[in-house]
Amino acid sequence: MNILKRLAGCVFLLTALVGCTTRDEAIDAEKYWEGLNDNQARIIANIGGKPFYSNESLFSGQVIMSENVLNVTLTDQFDGRTIINLAGDKWYGRRPVSDRVESYEQSATSLKIGKIIDREKLIGEGFMLTKGDIVAVTFEKSKMVFKIRGEVAKYSDFRKPDQYLPFECLVVYKKPAISLGDISEQAIFGTTHSN
Question: Model pTM?
Answer without folding.
Answer: 0.83
